[in-house]
Protein: Maltose/galactoside acetyltransferase domain-containing protein
Amino acid sequence: MVAGRLYFASDPELVADRTAARKLHATYYADPSARILHRLLKTMDKEEPAFIEPPFTVDYGYNVTIGKGVYMNFNCCLLDCAPIIVGDNVLFGPNVQVYPPGHPQDPSFRDGLRGPEYAKPVTIGSDVWVGGGAIILGGVTVGEGATVGAGSVVTKDVPPWTVVAGNPARVIRRVERGDRSHSGIE
Structure:
């Protein structure tokens, strides 16, 4: 699964792992503490843990790596069938979705719940802002310092220090370090 090859999501070990993650979700909703998050996301920074608003959903949790100073707003969903790496100081708006898994295009091979799926890793660099409702698909790297506009669907790599928006997301402009002209700061 993590290698990007076809796998069956109905495998009993994967079902058990997803079930364990769901139980931790419920615990986290009742007690949104870093202690619970560390059980769900074993690779989260322990010195500067992420602040993640519940509800928050992962498939497994163990394929998610989250850096220092990360904030995720309400209803973020990370389907970690392949590695999802989130750098330092990343901000997610509400309802951000990261989707590494995919399905074969041939419906006879896809075969509903009985068929295989695949997954491609997602990497989100440090100092990235992902606007609310954005969707990031498998195989994508979002470069350092990038901004993903709200509601965007990211299907291709995002160059560092750019602003992307739309469906599919495309580069709107480049960002220079120290440029506060679009920051809302006077």
About this structure: The chain has a mean pLDDT of 90. Helices lie at 12-30, 34-40, 107-110.
